[in-house]
Amino acid sequence: MRFFFPDVEEMPVPPGHRFPAVKYRLLREMIECEAILPPESLTPSPVATVEDLTRAHSAEYVAAVLDGTLSPDIVRRIGLPWSPALVRRSRATVGGSLAAAREALGHGISGQLAGGTHHAHRDFGSGFCVFNDLAVAALTMLEEGACQRIAIVDLDVHQGDGNAAILSGQAGMLVVGIQGERNFPFRRVPGDIDIELPDGTDDRAYLDALADVLPAIEAHRPDLLLYLSGADPLREDKLGRLALTHEGLAERDRMVFQMCRRRGIPVSIAIGGGYAVPIEASVKGYANTFRVAREVFEF
User: pTM for the whole thing?
Assistant: First the structure.
């Protein structure tokens, strides 16, 4: 059983930038220091190929990202300055989701210490997302015949407009999201199931909403569940607007994993957004997702 991490340098961002690039390093350090995952399970993510990327993105967009010729408008939409390090990390993030999907099919559970870049569309990136790792993983698994039915369960506080734009209507796909109703993106692309929550939603209301949607996920009978967990529903998150505690966030994860374990659904984790101040609160939320996964799946 393996879990993946992008073994590349941090992407450079200007001082004071809203994107906390340091969180990936801090998460890996916490996972290792607290032995949250078996040390031998941590594996560098492979790099996604151009062929992988063009399953979900246009060839023109992929080429522009790789050679640094994106238009200023698309760079602004992504919200991160272009750099070779950004390209390397983005390709490793997609490669990590692909590898984790395959690993989950073989072992029941996997994931990566990154991923969940659900705002990237076919022809452009957005919201700190360059390539859409879960869309690439889902389309690859369907194209290869490894799966007939896949569910994306997106519990990041921001609606996964890129997932919906690329995957909704695709045979065998179910795209589910629970998100803040007054949050980014402000132009939504509807998924198959979207649950919109008001500002200040607490643990109980959130968990009730999740309980209401789980039967529809089970009814889809997915061969694979791609779980975008997200730490940004936490009340400490500066971009989140919801009010979950760490205990509520961990119970959310437990409900998803217990459903998968009970129904025999392989699940692959991507961590999604987290923008707490201090960022250590987000890192704790991410780490707890893997802690709960190990508890439920008993590995």
Answer: 0.97
